[in-house]
Amino acid sequence: MNIENLDIRPSIKINGKLNIVIQVDDSHANYLTEMVEAFNNGQNIDCKIELTSKKKTLNANGYLWQLCHKIAVKVGNITKEDVYRQAIKERGIFEQREIENIEAFNEKWDNIGVGFFTEKVSPGIYNSYYGSSIYNRKELSAVIDYVVEEAKEQGIETMTIDEQKELLNLVKE
What we know:
Largest sheet: 3 strands, antiparallel
Helix content: 40-55%
Structural class: alpha+beta
Number of helices: 6
Radius of gyration: 19 Å
Shape: globular
Strand order of the largest sheet: 3-5-4
C-alpha cells in the first residue's frame, strides 16, 4: 500500500538510534493498526519510506474529478465514480493476481479508495486496479487524457493540451 503525504518527525534517540513518529490520515488508520498488531505479535514488517518526485498536483486531480462529474451529468444514469473507474480500467495501473477468496480481498482493497477495485479475468484470476491516488504525473496524465477524450466525445469543453501540461507541470523525462 502506498500512503502519500505522511507527516514524519524525528522523535528521540534510544540506544544511539533515532526514533521517528509517523502521522497519517484517518483513512489509513485501520491498515496501520493491523501492521502494528502483526509486528507486536512477532511478525516481521517491511516498510519503505522514500522521496518521491514529479507527483500529481491536487489541481490535476481536481480537474480529473470535475470532468468525470460533467461526463456523468451529460450521459445520465452513471456516476462520476463510474466514469473514474472506467478511466482507471482503460488507462490506469493494475496487477493480475490469483486470488482464492475474492470477497475477503475486496473487503480490504475496495476500502482503500474509489479507484481500487477488481475485475474477474478467469476463474480465480483477477485484475486489481489501483486508484490514481498512488499515480505519478505521467500515470495520472494518461488517465486524464482518457477522460478528456470522453468529455470531448460528449461535447464537453476541456482544457487545451498546453493548459493540461501546465496543470500537470510535466517535465520531459
